[in-house]
Amino acid sequence: MEQFIIKGGNALSGEVEISGAKNAALALIAAAIMTDETVTIENLPDVRDVNVLLESIEQIGATVERLNPHCVKINGKTIKSTVVDYEHIKKIRASYYLLGALLGKFNEAEVALPGGCNIGSRPIDQHLKGFKALGADVEVEYGMIVTKADKLVGNHIYFDVVSVGATINVMLAAAMADGNTNIENAAKEPHVVDVANMLNKMGANIKGAGTDVIRIKGVKKLKGTDYSVIPDQIEAGTYMMAAAITKGNVLIKNVIPKHLEAISSKLTEIGCKVEEYDDAVRVIGAEKTKSTHVKTLPYPGFPTDMQPQMTVALALAEGTSVVTESIFENRFKYVDELGRMGAHIKVEGNTAIIEGIERYTGASIIAPDLRAGAALVVAGLAAEGYTTVEDIKYIERGYERMDEKLRSLGAQIERVNSEKDITKFKLKVV
Ligand code: EPZ
After folding, report:
1. Residue 165 Cβ contacting ligand 1 at under 6 Å
2. 135 in the same domain as 283
3. Do 293 and 409 have their domain in common?
4. Does the pLDDT value for residue 91 go beyond 80?
């Protein structure tokens, strides 16, 4: 089974180019099928979740032409079916965007229900509440969400929780509904804005994305466009943490520094230096870092998708840090693995209490999910000795060529498949 092997201890240095945002790209792909004209999406990250979603729209008949790993042309005119039961789709949560997109375009959709996942129960009641408010019937039958409407009619929707997925899904469904839709208590994440921007380029009339009230005037139809995905805030944040904990000096390029403010300010608080440029940030690690407290919150708060990476950094900071996870119920699973590398972390409910240690020591660990997996790789980079990370398939859902990008910064990391590969790596790096 493929794993990463890392020999820690090298301070990262140099420049790294950040890919397009996975979570924006997934929603943009769904939005692209809502017109019969061609939509070209550029700066697409070449990661597994994106590739699975592209395969699944192809399965229902959309034309998908991959011009290169980072550019795709999508045409939804050839769609033959509104039923998405493609086996792999169950593995990606973002399959739910096909509900909003197909319902918005064809007034009906049947999509395999996304299952629970490793970060806890992830209900989609707010998505369904939104569809119902627009006039759709929604049933769950045989593991599929079945939704249908005679026609969709704009409405006033108040979300009980701030949800990125529900906000985007209702935006998709309401874009061509009759009349006006107001979404209140909307999510403000950069990818919500990205989807609104692309839909507007396609002819939609969406205002207020990025604030907590989004106003949508339904339009009759959408047209083709060319669009470039925003940079991945979480991939950028992960490399920022990697630079910080290896006491490195890294220029992280192709980013929007504003999207990284919550992360930059925590790094500054613990003693690292963050320099902002127009479309890059430089992180310079500190010889010694200080403890701090972090609470995950919807944007512009500290992102839950950066919580494991931040915890990995705080476990090496002097003093006691407290990390509170307020978005997902089960996002500290990796802490046991980190403990095997020497970290002193106690989890109580949704809070982790961290006593900083001097250094990690390498161990054989397992990636429990995407972001925690990446965080454990980052820990391995700062650990003394060798770390192997198993189940890297999770990491590959959302990080493009992580090993290659880290190697270009001077890390000793390799993808290996067997004991023989591991021995070869060890002989090479000694
Ligand atoms: C998106 O998930 C991201 N996924 C997640 O990224 C990210 O962690 C999350 O937003 C929060 O930022 C994609 O964009 C594909 P939510 P999403 O709806 O939309 C509750 C990663 O690592 N909730 O904003 O599913 C929910 O349980 C992934 O890239 C309801 O109660 O998250 C959670 O507590 C992991 N009912 C909170 O809202 C609903 O109907 C926020 O979830 C919907 C959500």
Report:
1. yes
2. no
3. yes
4. no
The pLDDT of residue 114: 73
pLDDT, mean over the chain: 95
List, in order, residues 6 or more apart from 420 with CB less than 8 Å away.
none
Sequence-separated (6 or more) residues with CB below 8 Å from residue 142: none
Domain that includes residue 91, residue range:
22-228
Residue count (the chain): 430
Q: Are the C-beta atoms of 12 and 410 separated by less than 8 Å?
A: yes
pTM (two decimals):
0.97
Q: Which of 56, 158, 172, 327 to mutate to test the pocket of ligand 1 (most atoms within 8 A of CB)?
A: 327
For residue 370 and ligand 1, the question of a CB distance below 6 A is answered with yes
Nearest to 241 by CA among 345, 381, 387, 402: 381
CA-based nearest residue to 352, from 293, 264, 289, 290:
293
User: If phi over 0 gives left and psi between -120 and 50 gives alpha, with beta otherwise, what is residue 211?
Assistant: beta
Q: 249 and 102, same structural domain?
A: no
- Which run of H or of E encompasses 147? strand 144-148
What separation, in Å, do the N-terminal and C-terminal C-alpha atoms of the chain show?
A: 24
Q: Which two tokens stand for residue 38?
A: 């061609």
